[in-house]
């Protein structure tokens, strides 16, 4: 699995809400935040910026491009952040809804959200918070994710719901996203501008300069696949075109 250096990277602590400017050892910041008082009400849903960062960590762990990470991969991050073994088990149990030992993107996002709250003093819940359920359980309609699971453009129910959630948080109520709305999240993929332009052209099927929810999902899948070194297609794959109809 992926391994971490002895000192937890500052960018990972930052993504979990742990500021380290005044701490020599980032791991000391984890201990400090772990001693904070639990707020009366927790907001478990990650912010759009956190979603961005968690997705980047997921892609970094999913070195084989399978679309999921196993416990051996993920525990390096969690144990590196000094979660107790029983807490790691509880986070995994909550995030791995189907118990298959793997986390897709949505489950990984939920796990990281739980870890972030724990590191900031919250107690882990005994059941999955309702705010995180859409990431882990996904939609009930199987039609949205039919297709060849071996295809680089296949979309799991967990990833679909995660991308839907990102869209809803970026949408200002118009039901579409302009290029400026998507700029930060697409550029966070660190793909070259040429690839991002191709992804936009493929996803913007109407050629109107904005993305509907279905088109946004297509763009996110294309970006994720390209980051796993799959060449971009010359036209929108059929398994992605389906999402333009079912979303």
From TrEMBL:
Coiled coil: none annotated. GO terms for molecular function: calcium ion binding. Residues 50-139, 159-240 form the EH domain. SMART domains: EFh, EH. GO terms for biological process: endocytosis; endosomal transport. GO terms for cellular component: cytoplasm; plasma membrane. Residues 128-152 are annotated as: Disordered. CDD domains: EH. Residues 83-118, 191-226 form the EF-hand domain. Gene3D superfamilies: EF-hand. It comes from the Eukaryota. InterPro entries: EF-hand-dom_pair (IPR011992), EF_hand_dom (IPR002048), EH_dom (IPR000261). PANTHER family: EH DOMAIN (PTHR11216). This is Calmodulin. It comes from Noctiluca scintillans.
């Amino acid at each position: 699995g992926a391994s971490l250096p002895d000192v937890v990277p500052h960018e990972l602590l930052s993504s979990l809400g742990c500021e380290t400017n005044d701490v020599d050892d980032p791991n000391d910041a984890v201990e400090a935040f772990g001693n904070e008082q639990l707020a009366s009400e927790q907001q478990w849903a990650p912010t759009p910026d956190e979603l961005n960062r968690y997705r980047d960590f997921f892609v970094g762990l999913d070195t084989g491009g399978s679309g999921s990470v196993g416990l051996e991969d993920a525990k390096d991050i969690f144990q590196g952040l000094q979660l107790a073994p029983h807490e790691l088990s509880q986070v995994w149990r909550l995030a791995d809804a189907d118990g298959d030992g793997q986390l897709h993107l949505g489950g990984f996002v939920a796990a990281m959200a739980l870890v972030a709250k724990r590191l900031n003093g919250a107690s882990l819940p005994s059941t999955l918070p309702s705010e995180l359920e859409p990431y882990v359980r996904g939609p009930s309609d199987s039609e949205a994710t039919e297709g060849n699971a071996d295809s680089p453009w296949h979309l799991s129910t967990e990833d679909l719901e995660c991308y839907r959630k990102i869209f809803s948080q970026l949408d200002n109520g118009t039901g579409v996203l302009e290029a400026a709305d998507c700029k930060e999240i697409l550029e966070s993929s660190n793909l070259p501008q040429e690839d991002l332009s191709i992804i936009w052209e493929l996803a913007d099927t109407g050629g109107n300069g904005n993305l509907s929810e279905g088109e946004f999902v297509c763009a996110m899948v294309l970006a994720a696949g390209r980051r796993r070194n799959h060449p971009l297609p010359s036209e929108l794959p059929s398994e992605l075109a389906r999402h333009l109809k079912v979303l």
